[in-house]
Amino acid sequence: MTDDPPTGQDNVPDPEEVVQRHERQLDAALAEVEDPTPSTDESLDLELPGLELHRRDFVKAGAATGAVAGLAGCSGGLLGDGAENGNDGGGSANTDYHVPPGEKDTYYGFWSGGHSGEVRVVGVPSMREIRRIPVFQKEGGVGYGHDEKTKQVLEEGGDVGSVAGHEWGDSHHPVLSETDGDYDGRWLFINDKGSGRVARIDLKYFETDAITDIPNMQACHGMAVQSPDTEYVYGVGEFRVPIPNDGTDYDDPDDYWSVFAALDPETMAVEWQVRIDGNLDNADTGKDGEWAFATGYNKEHAVGPQGMTHDDRDFLKAFNIPAIEAAVEAGNYEEVNGVPVVDGRQDSDLNRGDDPVVKYVPTPKSPHGCDVEPEGRYVTASGKLSPTVTVVDIEELASTSDPAEAIVGQPKVGLGPLHTTFDDRGNAYTTLFIDSQVAKWDIEDAVEAEKGSTDPVTGKVDVHYNPGHLQAVESETTDPAGDWLISLNKLSKDRFLSTGPIHPDNDQLIDISEDASSSETGGMELVADHPVHPEPHDCVVTHRDKIDPNDVWDREDYEGEKPFVTQDASGIERTGEQSVEVQMSSSRSQFGLQEFTVQEGDEVSLTVTNVEDVRDIIHGLAIPQYGINLAIAPQDTRQVTFEASESGVYWVYCTFFCSALHLEMRSRMIVEPRDG
Ligand code: CUA
Fold first, then answer.
1. Residue 483's CB: how many other CB atoms inside 10 A?
2. Are 34 and 71 in contact (CB under 8 A)?
3. CA atoms of 573 and 341, how far apart (whole Å)
4. Percent of the chain, pLDDT > 90?
5. Which residues pair with 644 in a beta bridge?
6. 608 Cβ inside 6 Å of ligand 1
7. Rounded to the nearest whole angstrom, what is the distance from the C-alpha of residue 641 to the centroid of ligand 1?
8. Closest to 13 (Cα-Cα) out of 98, 88, 96
9. Please, how many CA atoms are within 13 Å of residue 575, restricted to the half-sphere of its CB?
10. What distance lies between CA 579 and its chain's CA centroid?
11. Cα(657) to centroid of ligand 1, in Å?
12. Cα gap 412→81, rounded to integer Å
């Protein structure tokens, strides 16, 4: 950290112009808001202790669902109460985000890729995208889904509940495995919101090594690992569906299912599920292994937006892990599609006693983000359609028979609160989708203050535009770094050179290293914009010291499954009337076989080892006419099997620019006519 102003600060807009723009937006927005509002003072009774929400807040909040679409994207603060928005106008001491050539970032960031189905590795604070890791779809760059091993990963994750097969996924919430409440660098888990799937990335190799298609779940929105030691990986079901979903009984949405699923992180098998009322949205866990939480909407069990938002309340669901395990142990479950399903609905027998499996904490309707602060004392549910964040005391929740009593705070943070993240100084940061801001608030102040108070809010900063998730560095551990925060904004609008009608998202980097009570932003400073390909949803950021990837493959990691083929061992062997095995090495700048000959109609099993032991020397092996595209990292072996269906000469070439003789690095596959 230095006192030097960062580069790029000369883009600070003219303050007068900003004020004028805000005034214009305010006029336009108020004109839209005032009109349909019957009374600005009429309040909605949410039956929550000490909380009154004004109808006007809901009307404005309606923009989140498109009712007042014109509001979305306009700079806020002027519309909400509480702090004025805007940057400091420069001058504050700033953490340096510029990473000079040759230097490395302090942090690894892992971004979901949304419906691109991938995970991206981003250096923080430079925000340079370092690599992409394909997860839910085939990808040519690193040959994912092209070789037998990764093909199998995709296939095993693609059978349950898929009608047309899984061509793609909607990756949403990257989550790092933990030991002792800290990221341990072993795995990254990522869910598929498009289908009920959870994938695992092995961080030794930055490669997807398992995908589980979760039974009884059509869409997996939330994702979490159980703190402190990754006891479970949770996939959180969003869409409610009939079980079995075979068309026999489809017209009673009250009887549709939504489940919370617990997977074993090692085997990726589904251990148990809990069926709940309503649906589930985002998830997080307590820090002591006892509780997991998920927000949810649609307690109405409706099938359209109006019905789903009919009631004023929804629930934060608290999953009592030991009680659920005891129920499974005692056989108190129904086995559905091979999985023990515990009944966690409100009227379940398992929820009647002293130790219910699920506690339903009433919140304002349709809460969204679910985040546990670093000390593990409170879980927060961000309001989305309510301008508040609900703060629940986890210990109190565990002991009370009335979950509403565990609500200990409800600060009013602004319009469209979606997600909350934390620093190491007792501050929470919440994205405001409608206000297009990040609000900073003090957690203990929020517990002290009256519910609905704006007092705990210590600052707001404009973001551009309409933020969804946000993530502070190491926010999910017990000891966040407290220096950087990323706001993942859904729209970029006018921030970048136009690329036609499809715009990138905008991930903005915010310096949160300083608290400044005198400043409108509470010390937050927006320092950089970064356009991103559609459509990251969330990210997780860890110190680089916690990730320790290999430079080359360890042979023992695939010993017994695949051979290590040296130049000398390269050769071809006929294994049957119509099958051959071809094994060869690859190195700079030749394949182990200059040519190989097979018969038309042969099933060709091709095994290729990259014998290099130097980092970053990758070889490819492509036979385009047969759709073959392998990427082989140093010391690794990859395999593919195909049918040599048409006779002819086919060049086999290396796809990675590996040496000065890269172009010459070829082999020749001759497919002889069978009876020729
Ligand atoms: Cu090997 Cu190019």
1. 21
2. no
3. 50
4. 76
5. 602
6. no
7. 21
8. 88
9. 12
10. 43
11. 5
12. 9
Provide φ and ψ at 329, rounded to 5°.
-60, -40
Model confidence at 3, in pLDDT bands (50, 70, 90)?
Answer: very low
What pLDDT score does 496 carry? 97
Q: How far is the CA of 664 from the centre of ligand 1 (A)?
A: 8
Structure tokens at 458: 């210590």
Q: Which atom of ligand 1 is nearest to the CA of 586?
A: 1
Confidence of residue 95 (pLDDT cuts 50, 70, 90): low
Does 633 contact ligand 1 (Cβ within 6 A)? no
Read off the pLDDT of each residue in 92-98 and give the average, rounded to a whole number: 65
CA–CA gap between residue 162 and residue 182 (Å, rounded): 35
Q: Where residue 47 falls among pLDDT bands split at 50, 70, 90?
A: very low
Q: How far apart are CA 482 and CA 424, in angstroms?
A: 5
- Residue 392, token pair as written in the block: 């629940």
Q: Is the dihedral of CA 329, 331, 290, 202 positive or negative?
A: positive
Question: Could you tell me the sign of the dihedral formed by the alpha carbons of 676, 592, 207, 472, in that order?
Answer: negative
Distance CA 353, CA 346 (A): 12
How does pLDDT run across 445-498, given as a tens digit for each residue? Answer: 999 999 999 999 999 999 999 999 999 999 999 999 999 999 999 999 999 999
Long-range contacts of 574-580 (CB under 8 A, 24+ apart): 575/605, 576/603, 578/602, 578/603, 579/603, 579/604, 579/605, 580/604, 580/605
Q: Which two tokens stand for residue 100?
A: 């000079």
> What are 220's two structure tokens?
């997996």
**441 versus 253: which is more confidently predicted?**
441
Q: pLDDT, tens digit, for every residue of 364-413?
A: 988 999 999 999 999 999 999 999 999 999 999 999 999 999 999 999 99
CA of 168 to the centre of ligand 1 (A): 30
Q: 632 CB under 6 A from ligand 1? A: no
Q: Which residues share a beta bridge with 361? A: 316
Q: Is the CB of 631 under 6 A from ligand 1?
A: no
Residue 194 phi, psi (nearest 5): -70, -35
Nearest CA to ligand 1 atom 1: 619
Q: Tell me, what's the pLDDT at 255?
A: 87
Structure tokens at 130: 């370092």
> Strands 339-343, 334-336: parallel, antiparallel or unpaired by DSSP?
antiparallel
Confidence band for 178, pLDDT divided at 50, 70 and 90: very high
